[in-house]
Specification:
Layout: H1 9-35, H2 37-44, H3 50-66, H4 68-82, H5 84-104, H6 108-111, H7 114-144, H8 150-178, H9 181-188, H10 190-195, H11 199-207, H12 214-226, H13 233-240, H14 242-272, H15 278-306, H16 308-332, H17 336-363, H18 370-386, H19 389-400, H20 405-423, H21 427-435
Helix pairs in contact: 1-5, 1-7, 1-8, 1-11, 2-3, 3-7, 3-18, 3-19, 4-5, 4-7, 4-18, 5-7, 5-11, 7-8, 7-18, 8-15, 8-17, 14-15, 14-17, 14-18, 14-19, 14-20, 15-16, 15-17, 16-17, 16-20
Length: 436
């Protein structure tokens, strides 16, 4: 087996910066829609009641996830054919265009039904971009990493997402705290979307300065010398790696539900159902995502030392227990303090499986199909369970009349995550698969 060529320290730093900051820019753009969902509902989706208006907005939020498997597969195939670097440059350009469009769109009162249609189209374009971002950025990080630090490097992918959510929540908190309600609805909500336009040129400059992944470059060179025909990565994933595929999907389910329930849905739920002020709700989200930002690298490092399963399984169990207890407490005694306890409590244990899942998703697939495999499994889980989580949970509360309904959705996702973890092969087998 050929040794992976070692990149220079300078190039390694550029890869870390381009992957983490570029990915954070992408997810900031994708997340701020959820942060301002209540305002967007009123301006673009007027309906008979605020609840119906909000559900329409959250359904549109979910539309960005419906197309993500398409974007993930197309951009994953692109990354497996022409390289990780080109795929990452394309994703960031798509996200900048879509986010800028939302920031300048006229509202329903100005152009009627065209306004929500254009919002849906912009969300779909964001979804295509985000569908390829996760797998391409994660694959790039892991393939540049030293063999004994793949978990640590992979965890930086989730640090960048936590950073994006922290920035989004922080911006939402500052705007809600310093602008009047009329100012926020009139023009304040547009500011983060307009800033998101900068993602395009800044992200392109950052990512154009890095080399191609050495592992992919070595694979491409071997294939060219051997005269091997291009592979069909998606067919190979479905045919030859069913166990890896289902394990990865299960883990992604618990990861994505935790993100879109506790980072996106719970602040909306706290504002609309529990009467907690919006700035307070955004502040608790900011605190929780900061916890994730700090703990994720520890989780990745720990998985390099003691194994992936040894980190993932206990953390999912603890997350489910703490989430159930803290959510019940929030419903029984809604307050800023109980919401803060929930967000920090679940974020602490979320961090450990968040920080470990990215490296697992790449280790279970060989380099020739890695980007496609990670993109397909991740985006299927996100489409079905994550992106629609805010809408589904809002509907569950309305349909059942129980404010506890969302926590049972979380429990179900934790069960699927445990099944996925148990399906994982031994770490040694995973490493051999990654090096194939």
């Amino acid at each position: 087996m050929n040794a992976k060529p070692a990149p220079s320290p300078a190039m390694l730093r550029r890869v870390l910066i381009s992957s983490v900051l570029g990915n954070a820019f992408e997810w900031f753009d994708f997340a701020i829609y959820g942060m301002f969902a209540v305002i967007i509902a009123k301006l673009f989706f007027p309906a008979g009641t605020p609840a119906v208006s909000l559900m329409l907005t959250l359904a549109t939020f979910g539309m960005g996830f419906v197309v993500r498997p398409i974007g993930g597969v197309l951009l994953g195939l692109y990354g497996d054919r022409v390289g990780r670097k080109k795929a990452l440059t394309l994703t960031i350009a798509l996200m900048a265009v879509a986010t800028g469009l939302i920031g300048i769109l006229p509202t329903y009162s100005a152009i009627g039904v065209a306004a929500p249609i254009l919002v849906v189209l912009a969300r779909m374009l964001q979804g295509l971009s985000a569908g390829g971002e996760f797998s391409s950025a994660t694959t790039m990080l892991v393939e540049f990493a030293p063999e004994d630090r793949r978990g640590l490097y992979g965890s930086l992918q989730m640090c960048s997402q936590a950073l994006a959510f922290s920035l989004g929540a922080g911006v939402a908190y500052l705007l809600a705290s310093h602008l009047t309600h009329a100012q926020l609805e009139s023009w304040g909500w547009r500011l983060p979307f307009l800033v998101g336009i900068l993602v395009g040129p800044v992200g392109w400059m950052i990512r154009s300065s890095v080399d191609e992944s050495p592992e992919f470059a070595a694979y491409a060179e071997r294939s060219a010398k051997a005269g091997q025909p291009p592979r069909t990565p998606l067919a190979t994933v479905l045919r030859d790696y069913p166990r890896a595929m289902f394990a990865s999907i299960g883990l992604c389910v618990v990861g994505t539900v935790s993100a879109y329930v506790f980072v996106i849905f719970v602040p909306i739920f706290a504002r609309t159902q529990l009467g907690i002020p919006l700035p307070d709700a955004n502040l608790t989200t900011f605190a929780g995502t900061l916890v994730i930002l700090v703990i994720c690298p520890l989780a990745g490092w720990l998985s390099d030392k003691i194994g992936r399963k040894a980190v993932i399984i206990p953390s999912i169990i603890a997350y489910a227990i703490v989430g159930l207890l803290c959510f019940r407490h929030l419903i029984a005694a809604p307050s800023f303090a109980s919401l803060m306890l929930l967000e920090i409590g679940v974020s602490l244990f979320m961090s450990f499986f968040w920080g470990t899942i990215p490296v697992v998703m790449t280790e279970v697939f060989p380099v020739s199909i890695r980007s496609t495999g990670a993109a397909f499994t991740y985006n299927i889980a996100v489409m079905v369970f994550g992106g629609l989580a805010p809408f589904i949970n809002t509907w569950l509360v309305q349909a059942t009349g129980s404010k506890l309904a969302p926590i049972y959705y979380v429990m179900f996702s934790a069960l699927l995550g445990l099944i996925g973890a148990l399906l994982l092969p031994r770490r040694q087998a995973m490493q051999l698969s990654a090096a194939a």
